């Protein structure tokens, strides 16, 4: 059986590549984790399908867009739903989390110093109402240990997204004990626990 060669290119950050790295870690599959300095990006940008990172190359064939990469790896490593309906449920939950990320983008950009604005006002008026709305929907739709009966790429992505928020705002899951327990359940799987304890520090 020939080994598939995977090469993931991103900046030396967690960002949009971190869930992808964690899917590889959970699956126990080796990949080239290429982290480029920002000043190298302009020359690489025209060579990518959509002028953006992360970029996954599978035996040289490029795949862009982080959710498309995650979905592909979920299929490759059998970390997905068993039927089209189950797969749609994973997509549904991930799309919901992506909507939340889009809704709070202005607050996040200000909080990491990428944009100007009143962080406290954005937290109160933009972040909190969106957190309460979206997290309540997640609670309603994740009723078991995982989104489906077993861990999938979507659980790894969702738990990583939640953990990214917790790292910036330790009390963000207060009032949502089932989401906190869900995140910890995913991250306490042996391979992810090993990965998380050894990954390099990063600002985001």
From TrEMBL:
EC number: 2.5.1.18
Protein keywords: Transferase
Pfam families to which the protein is assigned, alphabetical: GST_C_3, GST_N
Record-annotated GST C-terminal domain positions: 83-204
Enzyme kind, highest EC tier: transferase
Signal peptide as annotated in the record: none
Keyword Metal-binding: no
GO biological process per UniProt: glutathione metabolic process
GO molecular function: glutathione peroxidase activity; glutathione transferase activity
A Gene Ontology cellular-component term: cytoplasm
The UniProt record lists the keyword Hydrolase: no
Catalytic activity: RX + glutathione = an S-substituted glutathione + a halide anion + H(+)
UniProt-listed PROSITE patterns: GST_CTER (PS50405), GST_NTER (PS50404)
Source organism, top-level taxon: Eukaryota
Domain GST N-terminal: 4-81
Family in the record: Belongs to the GST superfamily. Sigma family.
Protein name according to UniProt: glutathione transferase
Species per Swiss-Prot/TrEMBL record: Pristionchus fissidentatus
């Amino acid at each position: 059986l020939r080994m598939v060669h995977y090469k993931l290119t991103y900046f030396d950050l967690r960002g949009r590549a971190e869930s992808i790295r964690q899917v590889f870690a959970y699956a126990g599959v080796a990949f080239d984790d290429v982290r480029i300095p920002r000043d190298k990006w302009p020359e690489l940008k025209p060579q990518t399908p959509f002028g953006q990172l992360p970029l996954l190359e599978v035996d040289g064939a490029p795949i862009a867009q982080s959710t498309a990469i995650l979905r592909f790896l979920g299929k490759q490593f059998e970390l997905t739903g068993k039927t089209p309906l189950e797969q749609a449920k994973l997509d549904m939950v991930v799309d919901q989390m992506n909507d939340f990320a889009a809704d709070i983008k202005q607050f996040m950009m200000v909080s990491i110093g990428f944009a100007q604005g009143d962080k406290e006002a954005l937290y109160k008026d933009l972040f909190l109402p969106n957190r309460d709305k979206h997290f309540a929907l997640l609670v309603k739709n994740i009723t078991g240990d995982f989104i489906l009966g077993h861990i999938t790429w979507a659980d790894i992505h969702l738990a990583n997204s939640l953990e990214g928020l917790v790292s910036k705002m330790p009390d963000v899951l207060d009032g949502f004990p089932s989401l906190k327990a869900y995140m910890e359940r995913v991250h306490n799987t042996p391979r992810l626990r090993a990965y998380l304890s050894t990954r390099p520090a990063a600002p985001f």
